[in-house]
Design goal:
Elements: H1 3-17, H2 23-31, E1 35-38, H3 72-83, E2 91-95, H4 116-124, E3 128-132, H5 152-176, E4 180-184, E5 189-190, H6 198-211, E6 221-226, E7 237-238, H7 242-252, E8 255-259, H8 270-277, E9 283-287, E10 289-291, E11 293-297, H9 303-314, E12 321-325, H10 334-353, H11 357-365, H12 369-379, H13 384-394, H14 402-413
Parallel strand pairs: 1-2, 1-12, 2-3, 4-6, 6-8, 8-9, 9-12
Antiparallel strand pairs: 5-7, 10-11
Helix pairs in contact: 1-13, 2-10, 3-10, 5-6, 8-9, 9-10, 11-12
Bound molecules: ligand L2XQQQDX and manganese (II) ion (MN).
Length: 418
């Protein structure tokens, strides 16, 4: 390892030790945390099953940066590149439309065999897999309704898709020896004020009950449900609102998924974690960055990301929280987008682990809010960067912005030739 990186690390370690912070132990803990990197940043949420379908469901990937993956092989190569620039061993989050098959198969008939190449690749690379039924970008969701649809036949199709997805997810878990989290998000909602808000929610509840009816081994597979405030074209009413899924998750022991972009603009998910953790079986995060709306910008090391890290660490919530990413920016290099967002998420966790949590707690309990504020502010300039650099070097990935040259080279050699 570069001697300067090591020297800086030793100095930083001493400084943190003065507050009883064991940096080596923090790095050990950090190395165990898996981030679920979402495949859909690699191709603007197109997938491979229905090439001619436009992205729908009230979400949008804007931009036309060259080099998007066009095949499962290209997507896996891009993911390999991204993972080579990110410290730690992680997971990949797949959507059903990313099936790797030459068969013409519809969503309700998907089976594990359509994802076997993904499983084999994940196994060969020591990665885990997570899964999502894709309840959008399909002719049967063209009016923006799926599991809550008034038409029984359409509901049946989507229920069968969720059922099929759960089996695939459980196979991921079984074959890879690590739990697969399957997240259900449906876009269902109305552009304008509904006459009936209750009916669609009753139908969504019944559909979910049926789709989740079969007991599956929880060490292989966990169900999660994701709420939303509004989507493009569903501005007035979303069936699966936060209250809906909080109720559903609590009543049915499902993980509750909090997407950072799915709440009112000043509402933050960091402030929900401690409260939810007291009642839920588990939490799934969709770490994202809303800019004015659920824009799914690449995650930066902003206050909210740092606060999410703090809440997870201070509340000891890492054991019951699954951390997934959810952004899709087509205006920049897509491999870089993954690397930036994932490295930032790991950085936020490390920053949180290097805080003088005990001293802050004691000050708070003693009513010494002056010390609480003073320490919080002073720690913002503690040598966190030296620890991060050491962690990257030790993990065999580029230190600081060195990764960018690798992405630029990959762009020249691979992405621009597509
Ligand atoms: C593609 C994802 O499933 C999707 O982004 C969903 O998680 C969501 O957040 C929709 O706004
Ligand atoms: Mn999401």
């Amino acid at each position: 390892m570069d001697q300067k990186i090591l020297r800086n690390y030793e100095i930083a370690k001493e400084q943190y030790a003065e507050f009883g912070i064991d940096v080596d132990q923090a790095l050990e803990q950090l190395a165990k945390i898996k981030i679920s990197m979402h495949c859909w940043q690699g191709d603007d949420v197109k997938g491979f099953l229905f090439k001619d379908q436009d992205l729908s469901g009230g979400i949008a990937a804007t931009g036309n940066y060259p080099g998007a993956a066009r095949t499962p092989e290209e997507l896996r190569a891009d993911l390999d590149k991204a993972f080579s620039l990110i410290p730690g061993k992680h997971k990949v989050n797949l959507h059903a439309i990313y099936a790797d098959t030459d068969e013409k198969v519809d969503l309700d008939k998907l089976e594990t065999k359509h994802f076997q190449k993904w499983i084999d690749w994940a196994k060969a690379n020591g990665l885990g897999l997570d899964f999502n039924p894709t309840c959008f970008s399909h002719e049967k969701s063209s009016d923006g309704l799926t599991l809550s649809h008034p038409n029984e036949e359409i509901r049946r199709f989507w229920i069968d898709h969720v059922k099929a997805s759960r089996h695939i997810s459980a196979s991921f878990g079984e074959q890879l020896g690590q739990t697969s989290v399957m997240n259900v998000w449906v876009p269902d909602g109305y552009k304008d004020i509904p006459a009936d808000r209750l009916g669609p929610r009753k139908r969504l509840k019944e559909s979910l009950d049926e789709a989740f009816a079969e007991e599956l081994n929880k060490s292989y597979h966990l169900d999660a449900v994701e709420s939303k405030l509004f989507g493009l074209g569903a501005e007035a009413y979303t069936v699966g609102s936060h209250e809906f899924y909080m109720g559903y998750g609590l009543q049915n022991n499902k993980l509750i998924c909090l997407d950072a972009g799915h709440f009112h603009p000043t509402e933050v998910i960091s402030n929900k974690l401690s409260a939810l953790s007291l009642f839920v079986e588990g939490i799934l995060l969709h770490v994202s960055r809303p800019v004015r709306w659920d824009s799914d910008h690449v995650v930066i090391l902003d206050d909210e990301l740092l606060d999410i890290g703090k809440e997870l660490v201070r509340g000891d919530l890492l054991g019951k929280t699954h951390i997934g990413l959810d952004f899709f920016d087509a205006s920049i290099n897509r491999v870089a987008a993954w690397v930036i967002g994932t490295r930032n998420t790991i950085k936020a966790l490390l920053r949180a682990m290097l805080e003088p949590i005990e001293a802050l707690r004691q000050a708070e309990l003693a009513g010494d809010y002056t010390t609480r504020l003073a320490l919080t502010e002073e720690f913002k300039t503690y040598p966190f960067g030296a620890v991060w650099d050491y962690y990257c070097a030790k993990s065999g990935v580029p230190v600081r912005e060195e990764w960018l040259a690798e992405v630029k080279n990959y762009e020249q050699e691979v992405l621009l030739k597509r």
